[in-house]
Design brief:
Elements lengths: L1 H6 L1 H16 L5 H25 L3 E2 L5 E2 L2 E2 H17 L5 H24 L3 E2 L5 H28 L2
Antiparallel strand pairs: 1-4, 2-3
């Protein structure tokens, strides 16, 4: 079983996500930024399990699964990048749009790579739909970040 996990391509993405996370995370602000990871996981599981149920796309080589989604993906790239997304959100609204677009394009490129690797099968899904969907998700995270800032500033 350990050999199967180590050879799993989703496990590789899990490891890469956490390595990037440990290099970039601000440990002093993790208490407020971890909500980005939690909400990212919830939104990702909702989107991907719904897409699986409708037959839009599905995962290969999942390893451990949650709602037919690879747990390595959910608790790797999704949670770590959700935290980093909130952490690096700029104050300037125009820069926030660029930030949103950068992460959206990054996730679309990631999706292209996992499709190319054969671990994401997309019979009724395409990268344009992914771009739109990721834009909505990252827009929701921008709202969450503003909400959390208003809550913490209001309690000072």
């Amino acid at each position: 079983m350990v050999n199967n996990i180590l050879l799993n391509k989703w496990f590789f993405t899990f490891i890469v996500g956490w390595i990037v996370f440990f290099f970039l995370v601000d440990w002093k602000a993790i208490y407020k930024n971890f909500w980005g990871g939690i909400i990212s996981c919830i939104l990702e599981l909702w989107q991907d399990s719904l897409a699986y149920t409708m037959g839009m796309y599905f995962f290969q080589e999942e390893g451990l699964t949650i709602l037919n989604v690879s747990a390595f993906f959910t608790f790797g790239i999704t949670v770590t990048m959700g935290i980093l997304y909130i952490q690096f959100t700029p104050e300037n609204p125009m820069l926030q749009i660029l930030h949103l677009l950068a992460f959206t394009v990054g996730f679309v490129i990631f999706e292209y790579l996992v499709k190319y690797a054969g671990i994401l099968i997309t019979p009724y899904w395409n990268l344009a739909a992914s771009f739109f969907n990721n834009t909505i998700i990252f827009g929701g995270l921008l709202w969450l970040n503003d909400f959390l800032k208003c809550r913490t500033e209001g309690h000072r």
